[in-house]
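Why does this matter for the project? Reviewers at the last site visit asked to see concrete outputs rather than summary tables. In response, this paragraph embeds two records directly. Each consists of the residue sequence and, immediately after it, the corresponding structure tokens. Nothing has been edited or filtered.
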Amino acid sequence: MSTATTHHARILAAAAAAATAIGLAGATTTTAGPAAAVPIGPGCPALYVLGVQGTGQSSPTADPLADTGVVGAFIAPVLSGAPGLVQRSYISYGAGFGGAVPGGGRDPYVVSVTDARSQLDAAAAQIAETCPDTMIAGVGYSQGAQAVSSFARDVGAGVGPIGPERVAGIALYANPDRAPDAPIFPGRPGQTVPDPAPGTSGAAVAGVQIINPPAGGGGIADGATSYGALTGRVADICTDGDLACSAPDRAALLRVGAEIAAQADLRDPFAAIGSVGALLSSVLGDAWTTVVLNDFQVGGGNVDYAPQLPLAARLIDAADPRVPAPNPYDIGAAAARWNEVTATVAGNPIGLLPKLAGQLATAWGQLVADNADLLNPAVWVRFVDTVSRHNSYAINGQLNSGIAWMVALAHDIAGSR
């Protein structure tokens, strides 16, 4: 292997490792428990801020009032900037990545995010019920941003635990569900001033600009979330080259790998090999079932491979735990369809094989194109310090405009009472 090839392989290995460690820092490990009561009081504030930490920065027993981690570096200045107007608490959850991240819980990433979202829903509902005049804001970093993003998506669509009129603002940092090339305010290209909180004049918020250098690519989880009624009140901040939220556009297999890692038991090499192997086998089987059912057309003595979605999209969907897996009926139907395909081709190999070979070659070429960035060293130069970029939000000033936004929201809400 040449020196250049070896160097390129090392870059890819480092990038893949960073992809499976979306969020770094320490806490503890345990399994998810029931949602704890949210600390409220004395009295009800104008604004209640709920924070969800990144991987390893929380635990099921974490103090909900301790201003630690990246999210703590955001919320603590909000409290001092709007004294008496703001209360806060942090969602206490496993913050794990299958045991791979030091200090993180043993649960797979997907389980951890799901627990954070459940706890967040319960907290928001409790605050809304206990304090009818209080508005709610959410702040999430890395894994926590994915949970808060999911919450905001459902609230904006009208299917969340509270109505969109109760949400003043959502701040996301290093969001793995960031849409490709998303602007700071998803759905509002060019907007820098947040929309006002519902029912307020927005006078204080009008003096705030949420600014950040542009970031290419999209989140490694490929959620491409939109926010419905909350559009304009959700800010998605990403550092270019942070693999969590700024992954290359044409790197489908990287996303597949990240989705598999997010579901795996990574406590030790032996557990990881078995868990990842089983998940990969399941993903390939699910993708094959979907391809056969949807992309092969057979009948009248003819067979065509006419994909409704590219192979890359089929693999990403198969690896995504949010996409339902084929059911037993689908698996049986795919087997029957494949038998029909092979029988038809066997009946007319000279007429059908060259055509199918050309169609499959085109699909393979598209798959290669959809992963072209994986083979481009110039692309990976952006990610050689991705871990540093991912961990720098609290120290490079990127939190400051979001902090000012939350302080302004609190003053606007208080002034509207």
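We now turn to the second protein, recorded in exactly the same manner.
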Amino acid sequence: MLTLLELLKDGRFHSGQALGDALGVSRSAIWKQLQLLESELGLAVHKVRGRGYQLPSPIILLGAKEVSKHSSSLAWPVHVFDSIDSTSAEALRSIGRGCAAPFLVLAERQTDGRGRRGRKWVSPFAENVYYSLVLRVEGGMRQLEGLSLVVGLAVMNALRECGVPGAGLKWPNDVLVGQKKIAGILLELVGDPADVCHVVVGIGINVNMQSAEEVDQEWTSVRLESGKVLDRNQMIGRLNEILALYLERHRSGGFPAIQEEWEQGHLWQGRAVSLIAGANKIDGVVLGIDRQGALRLRVGGEEKVYSGGELSLRLRKEP
């Protein structure tokens, strides 16, 4: 099936006979594989009598060599999967098997992609970036302070370089364009965070996606914002380089070295918000973040600080 996709990925018409000859199978077998492409991978295939079969637009598939070519200054091993439950789940399994960090797991699609608070991350085939980087962290909690915010800053800058100048941050780990989500970050820890542990840096970026009925919030993509189809290999390579630079700044100077830059990229700085914590709602105005990456709010004339993985921030009407 994927061999057939390699022949169709140029977006041009290919006759059933030509496809069958190239793969050494009958036209009937080609028809069955085309049905699988549509049913299993969710790809639309145009069928025109007398011309053959064509994808709606060309597809650039991911490749470890192609990603590495665009991030030649790094030696991170890259593992690419056609389809997987989630890149972060595979990263965790790889840690359990003793794979040495750092390494990167990518996929063309995820069947069980995860966001924050257990939400599903919609992951169509060959359209977006599903990315999990495994890091070994030594030196205790200081190396973890504000880490998800550091990753968000790297993602924001990669998006801006790729033609989305309006990309900005939303505490704690979303990247938005206006009020539409374009990327999200999810970190998972394995081991002792006070000593030596592994961190799985999960990143999802909407790249070439143009429609997704399953998404239950406002969203956008690089293609919708820029009007261009992006080579995801190139984007991932550049993201790797930018992320490596920010991780080194964080390692050497801690989160305070990046705090001010993060606040400059925060779209909701000074905005009236509601902070949702379970069944509780706290209304306030965003003052910024502290030296550990926690949210600073003005609540009832006082400054209060909030942090935690289950918190959610929402805009409200200005007071």
